[in-house]
Amino acid sequence: MLALQGDVAEHAAALLSVGAHPVEVRVPDDLAGLDALVLPGGESTTMSRLLESSGLFDAVGERLAEGMPAFGTCAGMILLAADVMDGRADQRSFGAIDVVVRRNGYGRQVDSFEQALPVEGLVGGPLDAVFIRAPVVERVGPGVEVLAEVDGSPVLCRQGPVLVAAFHPELSGDLRLHQLFVGEC
């Protein structure tokens, strides 16, 4: 799990609860032997800068290009996207999933909300989704599977081994997305 900033402890607890063994990734050597990577919610600009300064950006990019599974939530979705709107001019993303996202597309902190979210293929009814300064998906590529939407906008997408959510499943107490990701790894 990328452990530079954000909801690291919350994701670690969720992953432990579903039987995974999270490893905190802070430097390139921490990637050795990992089966998958979770990129947590947090602040995408800060995370982007820390990825660069730690030397992790290129190392993570190489592993993603090799097909390493990844699960990005909120800021993690932004980092995994093919393109980012309203980001810094020098902000890089990994291009691991063919989506274009707009940072803070649902508004500022005061515009945060929770919503019961039906998820395609997820057993057990709607998922409680927590949206905090969430990105909006502006475009999905032809190979992207949209698993959930809010008002017609994709908020949960998958392409190959990459799963991204515009919301924070680590904050809701509902572990089904973490189970889904771990099960697919």
**First CA to last CA: what distance?**
14 Å
Number of beta strands: 10
Query: What would you say the CATH architecture is?
Result: 3-Layer(aba) Sandwich
Number of continuous helical runs: 5
Q: Residue-averaged pLDDT, rounded?
A: 93
Order of helices and strands: HEHHEHEEEEEEEEH
What quaternary form is this?
single chain
- Low-pLDDT segments, ≥5 res: none
* Strand order, largest beta sheet: 1-2-10-9-8
Could you describe the 3D structure shown?
- Strand 9 and strand 10 (162-165) form a beta hairpin.
- The radius of gyration is 15 Å and the shape is globular.
- 24% of the residues lie in helices and 27% in strands.
- The protein is of the alpha/beta class.
- The chain has five helices and ten strands.
- The strands form three sheets. Strands 1-2-10-9-8 form a five-stranded mixed beta sheet. The protein has a three-stranded mixed beta sheet with strand order 3-4-7.
Chain-wise SSE layout:
Blueprint lengths: L7 H10 L19 E3 L4 H10 L2 H10 L4 E4 L1 H6 E5 L11 E6 L10 E5 L9 E5 L4 E5 L4 E6 L2 E7 L2 E4 L10 H9 L1
Parallel strand pairs: 1-2, 2-10, 3-4
Antiparallel strand pairs: 4-7, 5-6, 8-9, 9-10
Could you give a quick summary of the protein structure above?
The chain has five helices and ten strands; from the N terminus they run αβααβαββββββββα.
What labels describe this entry?
alpha/beta, 185 residues, five-stranded mixed beta sheet, Rossmann fold, single chain, three-stranded mixed beta sheet
